Amino acid sequence: MQTLKSDNTQKYPTWLSRLLFTIAENQRKQLSIDLHDTVLQEQLYLYRKMDDLIAHRHALEPTLQAELNMYKESLLDSIHLIRETCNELRPAFIEELGLVQSLKNLIHQYQLRSNFTVYFRSDEFKADLDQERILAIFRVVQELLTNAMKHSEAKIVKLSLSNDEEQVHLFYSDNGLGMDYSFKRDLFSHIGLSGIEQRVNGLNGNLEIDTAPGAGFRMTITFPYAAKKEVHV
Predict the structure, then answer these.
(1) 217 in the same domain as 112
(2) For the Histidine kinase domain, which residue ranges apply (predicted)?
(3) Mean pLDDT score, 14-25
(4) Helix axes of 131-147 and 14-34: crossing angle, nearest 10 degrees
(5) Measured distance between the N- and C-terminal CA atoms of the chain, rounded to whole angstroms
(6) Global pTM value
(7) Are 46 and 109 found together in one domain?
(8) Three-class SS of the chain
(9) pLDDT-above-90 percentage for the chain
(10) 6: domain CATH number?
(11) CA distances (Å), 71 to each of 58, 78, 109, 216, in order?
(12) How far apart are CA 173 and CA 156, in angstroms?
């Protein structure tokens, strides 16, 4: 197992990374709104019409009714998928729920459609983060779980979130296939981790990867946090 550190010489300037991700998040938000207000509403309308048709046409042939029910269930699956996509594009209620609960909800969604078990620890996390950092952590975990589902063939994934007086610490590990360290710089782009690297850069953080073929994959991320300013009335 060898360690690969993010190479500062390959990074965008911090201000540019933050700007690019702010633009990307705004685009995600708008796309989520558009999907919800147009495509999802159209699908819901069609589902209600089909449900009404089946309920009030008692003279339908059994084979036709069975076929319509099958189409109705397929339509319902599409509705759930669109809702899930909207939530992934713009996490619902993340400000109200807070980071830890939002991560637990995200992990639950991934476990429903993957073959690995996720163990998540956050009991040592007490930091009061701004929304930029909260969303950055959420996106990093989202990308790590996506990579695990697509590439790792892992059975166990471990995540921990903690902080000390100055730094936030995010640790990820899995017992999957691992990667060939000889990729070095190409490792980030090869498995789609360049976005994580740039997010960490935008937070003035550090990223380290430990991996080897057959030895799983580990990532450690640290970045400074700034507590919210108190408002005195």
Answers:
(1) yes
(2) 137-227
(3) 70
(4) 80
(5) 54
(6) 0.74
(7) no
(8) CEEEECCHHHCCCHHHHHHHHHHHHHHHHHHHHHHHHHHHHHHHHHHHHHHHHHHHCCCCCHHHHHHHHHHHHHHHHHHHHHHHHHHHHCCCCHHHHCHHHHHHHHHHHHHHCCCCEEEEECCCCCCCCCHHHHHHHHHHHHHHHHHHHHHHCCCEEEEEEEECCCEEEEEEEECCCCCCHHHCCHHHHHCCCHHHHHHHHHCCCEEEEEECCCCCEEEEEEEECCCCCCCCC
(9) 29
(10) 3.30.565.10
(11) 18, 11, 25, 42
(12) 8
Contacts of 76 (CB under 8 A, 6+ apart): 47
What pLDDT, in 10s, does the model give residues 35-61? 878 888 999 888 888 888 888 877 778
83 CB-near residues (< 8 Å, 6+ apart) = 40
What are the pLDDT digits (tens) for 136-147? 999 899 999 998
Does residue 75 contact residue 46 with C-beta atoms inside 8 Å?
A: yes
Q: What is the pLDDT of residue 33?
A: 77
67 and 121 both lie in a single domain = no
Nearest Cα residue to 207 out of 144, 152, 155: 144
Given 33, 57, 89, which residue is the final one in a domain? 89
